[in-house]
Amino acid sequence: MKLLTLNCHSWQEDQQLEKLDILAKTITERDYDVIALQEVSQLTDAPAEGTYKKGHFGLELLKRLSSFGRKDDRMHWSFCHYGYDIYEEGVALLSRLPVTEMDSFFITKSIDPDHWKTRAVPRITVDAGNRLIDFYSCHLGWWSDDEEPYIDQVERLIEKQHPDRLSFYMGDFNNHAGLKKEGYDLLLSKGLKDTYTLAETKDSGTTVFGEIAGWEGNAQPLRIDYIFASEPVKVKSSKVIFNGEHHPVVSDHFGVEVEIEI
User: Fold this and answer.
1) Of 172, 106, 111, 178, which Cα lies nearest the Cα of 142?
2) Which domain holds residue 80?
3) Which SUPFAM superfamilies match (predicted)?
């Protein structure tokens, strides 16, 4: 099974349409089974186009995937909050495997879309042939936030875990693995297994270089995007993608792909 997570920074990138094409082409070539995306946006005042609005980033991605011959993907998107007064920003999951269940829940105290810290998480259950597996697309807040404490967000996330199913938590967790006794260690303390550390082959794992929104003043390489499993799994490889070396840069975050034996 091949998985991808990427914070898309959608509709805020230079040469956005070109980067969207690169993303769609790479997904097709790499043949991912499940994809978690964060910062997946649509314009608030755009007209409706089916379930979503015209120009929804995820919808545009699906159209491109279909044009490349990948026609089985289904998307589950959760709206979190308004961004920059013009966007409806959310998080999404795409799967080419059959989806048997889906839902969405808030991990913040706030459920008000007018508040930029409001965060929701979509979940899908897929039929992987011989078992059902749950996937979550996550975009958490910051460790030092007193208004929406990180530990509370993690508690709300983990309490939704199905006790009898393997689960994968994929996304932008906004906490650097190199900082001890903060968010990364908290996630591990909840029993999550970092597929990066389990991988037989891996690279540096760096997903952010320098300063981006939410990390103003940062001058060090960060590993803040992860794919966690709820139990130990056999991970053949973990690679950073869309970093300029392994495919062109398409966002202010790099992506993470893992290959797992299920």
Assistant:
1) 172
2) 2-261
3) DNase I-like
DSSP string, 109-140: S---TTSTT--EEEEEEEE-SSSEEEEEEEE-
Q: Which residue's structure tokens are 């070539």? A: 29
Sort residue 205 into left (φ over 0), alpha (ψ -120 to 50) or beta: left
What is the rounded distance in angstroms from the CA atom of residue 34 to the CA atom of residue 4? 7
Among residues 72, 82, 77, 71, which one has the least CA distance to residue 36?
A: 77
- Number of domains into which the chain is organized: 1
Provide the CA 171 distance to its chain's centre, in angstroms. 3
The pLDDT tens digits for 65-93 are 999 999 999 999 999 999 999 999 999 99
Taking the C-alpha atoms of residue 77 and residue 23, their distance in angstroms, rounded to an integer, is 18
Please say whether the dihedral angle defined by the alpha carbons of residues 7, 242, 20 and 170, taken in this order, is positive or negative: negative
The CATH code of the domain that includes 19 is: 3.60.10.10
Strands 166-172 and 132-139: parallel
Can you give the pLDDT at residue 243?
97
The dihedral built from the CA positions of residue 209, 213, 215 and 218, taken in this order, carries a sign that is positive
- Start-to-end CA distance of the chain, whole Å, equals 7
Distance CA 59, CA 47 (A): 13
DSSP code per residue over 180-242: TTSHHHHHHHTT-EEHHHH-SEE-----B-S--TT-TT--S-B--EEEEESS--EEEEEEEES
Those residues of the chain that have pLDDT short of 70 are none
Q: What is the maximal distance between C-alpha atoms in the chain?
A: 47
**Residue 228 contacts residue 193 (beta carbons within 8 Å):** yes
Half-sphere exposure of 29 (CA within 13 A, CB side): 9
Measured CA to CA, the distance from residue 51 to residue 46 in angstroms comes to 13
pTM greater than the 0.85 cutoff: yes
